[in-house]
């Protein structure tokens, strides 16, 4: 099975191969996972052997494995990256997710290439260019709305390039690939897989006159993405790959969220017969998927339906959980609570929390919980009661971790099977033959020598024969129908029926493996398509000569080096984001227009963010409705960069590209 314009792909993350295997079992059509290096999650790498193990399991269901190689590379890293890609290809990886265009200029195997979210695809022109450059799938910026996604769809050839879009998980506040705060402050580059997550810190927000606009607020911290209600409109807008964020997430998260979207997509597929899933089989779950059960900062659908006022998780970057009841009594070593629902079940180890008077989230993990009856519970917290400040009668208690839920997902929680039609008939050569045909049309036949013998009870014999053939529990398969096409009733011993069934399933496994095909590598158009712009700033993340060669070949005249080359020593935009602090704090001039007594008095003047000694300036570009977080690189980071440049013999050029032959 190869994916096409009518296939919908559920794309799940995997921190490791075991999580990836469970994602496949829970209904993923494709998995994305980090290899041994050069992935944009520095501590989520996996060995070649583990990639091969995951690919072998995924391919049995015609599911795919995409490996992230989406950091920007130094010149001295291009050759190790090239060798790694050949190893990944040999291990069975189906595609590479890349950011660095230098990879298109080196000798790679014919592996399919996908454009990472780090390539910052916001316009139809850039999307079309990447398609024409040979990328087969592109991850659009999370900030696009449905009309903008549809405009990209209209610019692409769906037989050559498909649209991938994040539907769930943590949100980077910046346009992906357009955040340099981590590098400027710590030397750890987000574009090289080592983000320090400055966006999750609390900040003082100060206006141009030095007045406090917000105090200790996480104003760059977004709620978590959840597009559960938008899948139909996203399909209509052209999305074909639905991506779950989370290569740092645990097994329980991946199982639950994969199962949640598998159910939603399957419901849509039932309503839309012109569409199909991108891999084989169907999945049954032992639990009811529920996104609220996993760590989340509450949910938003971000910009898909236009700018919203409530996209930020300004109060806390932690998981506030769901309200379950309220405190009725506080004692020296415990507190009592009354549940909102009589059906609520609590367990030792449950994660409880509440908001204190300063609107800070306070954790109150339960060491022991006793049921008092009639919806009342007694909680003995892990920490001393004295540390639970502002906990008093009437305090609303949330639960952000259910041990019963955790234990459910620690067990086997899904069963994925491929439907087969079985037909038992007389073999032309004598004896019996069992033919198995799977839901994709692959077929295999097993034969057994058996003398014809009439059974004592024909009806009972046929029933037992059907039962024996239907026992596919140890295989990937489940019977859709069993046809017995014999000229007369035969007595078929259970041992013969079982052997026929086993041999047929093994032969079908082999037929499916033989039919499996690699995804094709797209050929770039010739002559090379012109890049939509003729000059590139540090925002293009060009960090090696091969990437420079790529853009020069595509008509770019001026190419600045990536921010990580440390040639931008003054104040520059360290983050570009669609999120606007002014809008979120109701200080947007566009919001104020038409308000009596306010019109004309609110201007998009800069604001300042302060966290300890760190100061950043917010500048507002109102025409495209974007915010720039402005700052400069630290002296210590500059010195560290100079040492690394000397160690790796790095050289960066400005302005006119140097012809390729001068630096090969």
From TrEMBL:
Entry protein name: U32 family peptidase
InterPro entries: Pept_U32_collagenase, Peptidase_U32, RNA/ubiquinone_mod_enzymes
PANTHER family attached to this UniProt entry: 23S RRNA 5-HYDROXYCYTIDINE C2501 SYNTHASE, PEPTIDASE U32 FAMILY
One Pfam match: DUF3656
Organism domain of life: Bacteria
Stored SUPFAM superfamilies: FMN-linked oxidoreductases
Peptidase U32 collagenase domain segment(s): 397-512
């Amino acid at each position: 099975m190869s994916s096409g314009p009518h296939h919908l792909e559920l794309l799940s993350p995997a921190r490791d191969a075991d999580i990836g295997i469970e994602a496949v079992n829970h209904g993923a059509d494709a998995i994305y996972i980090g290899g041994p290096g050069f992935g944009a999650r520095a501590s989520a790498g996996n060995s070649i052997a583990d990639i091969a193990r995951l690919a072998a399991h995924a391919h049995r269901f015609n599911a795919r494995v995409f490996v992230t190689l989406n950091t920007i590379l130094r010149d001295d890293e291009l050759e190790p990256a090239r060798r790694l890609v050949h190893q990944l290809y040999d291990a069975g990886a189906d595609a590479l997710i890349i950011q660095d265009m230098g990879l298109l200029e080196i000798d790679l195997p014919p592996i399919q290439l996908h454009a990472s979210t780090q390539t910052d695809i916001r316009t139809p022109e850039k999307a079309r260019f990447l398609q024409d450059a040979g990328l087969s799938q592109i991850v659009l910026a999370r900030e696009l709305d449905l009309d903008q996604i549809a405009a990209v769809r209209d610019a692409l050839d769906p037989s050559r390039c498909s649209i991938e879009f994040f539907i769930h998980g943590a949100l980077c506040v910046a346009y992906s690939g357009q955040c340099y705060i981590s590098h400027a402050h710590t030397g750890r580059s987000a574009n090289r897989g080592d983000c320090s997550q400055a966006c999750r810190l609390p900040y003082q927000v100060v206006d141009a006159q030095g007045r406090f606009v917000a105090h200790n607020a996480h104003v760059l911290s977004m709620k978590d993405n959840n597009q559960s209600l938008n899948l139909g409109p996203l399909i209509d807008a052209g999305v074909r790959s639905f991506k779950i964020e989370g290569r740092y997430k645990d097994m329980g998260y991946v199982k639950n969220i994969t199962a949640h979207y598998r159910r939603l997509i399957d419901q849509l597929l039932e309503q839309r017969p012109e569409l199909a899933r991108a891999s084989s089989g169907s999945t049954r779950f032992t639990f009811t998927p529920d996104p609220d059960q996993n760590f989340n900062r509450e949910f938003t659908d971000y910009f898909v339906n236009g700018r919203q006022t409530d996209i930020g998780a300004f109060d806390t970057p932690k998981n506030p959980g769901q309200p379950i009841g309220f405190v009725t009594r506080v004692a020296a070593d415990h507190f009592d609570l009354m549940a909102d629902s009589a059906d609520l079940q609590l367990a030792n180890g449950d994660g409880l929390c509440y908001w204190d008077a300063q609107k800070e989230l306070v954790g109150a993990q339960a060491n022991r919980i006793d049921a008092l009856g009639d919806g009342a519970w007694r909680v003995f917290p892990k920490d001393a009661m004295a540390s639970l400040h502002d906990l008093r009668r009437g305090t609303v208690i949330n639960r952000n971790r259910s041990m019963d839920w955790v234990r459910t997902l620690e067990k086997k929680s899904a069963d994925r099977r491929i439907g087969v039609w079985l037909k038992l008939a007389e073999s032309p050569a004598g004896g019996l033959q069992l033919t198995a045909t799977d839901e994709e049309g692959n077929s295999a036949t097993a034969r057994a020598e058996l003398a014809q013998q009439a059974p004592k009870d024909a009806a009972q014999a046929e029933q037992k024969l059907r039962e024996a053939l239907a026992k596919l529990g140890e295989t990937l398969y489940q019977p859709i129908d069993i046809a017995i096409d014999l000229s007369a009733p035969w007595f078929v011993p259970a041992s013969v029926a079982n052997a026929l069934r086993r041999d047929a399933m093994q032969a079908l496994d082999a037929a499916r493996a033989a039919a499996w095909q690699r995804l094709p590598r797209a050929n770039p158009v010739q002559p090379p398509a012109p890049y939509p712009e003729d000059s590139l700033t540090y925002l293009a993340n060009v960090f090696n000569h091969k990437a420079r060669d790529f853009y020069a070949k595509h008509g770019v005249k001026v190419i600045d080096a990536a921010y990580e080359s440390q040639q931008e020593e003054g104040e520059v935009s360290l983050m570009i984001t669609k999120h606007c602090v002014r809008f979120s704090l109701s200080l947007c001039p566009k919001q104020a227009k038409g308000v009596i007594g306010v019109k004309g008095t609110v201007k998009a003047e800069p604001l300042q963010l302060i966290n300890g000694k760190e100061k950043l300036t917010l500048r507002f570009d109102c025409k495209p409705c974007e915010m720039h977080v402005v700052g400069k690189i630290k002296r210590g980071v500059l010195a560290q960069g100079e040492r690394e440049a000397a160690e790796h013999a790095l050289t960066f050029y400005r302005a006119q590209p140097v012809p390729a032959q001068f630096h090969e």
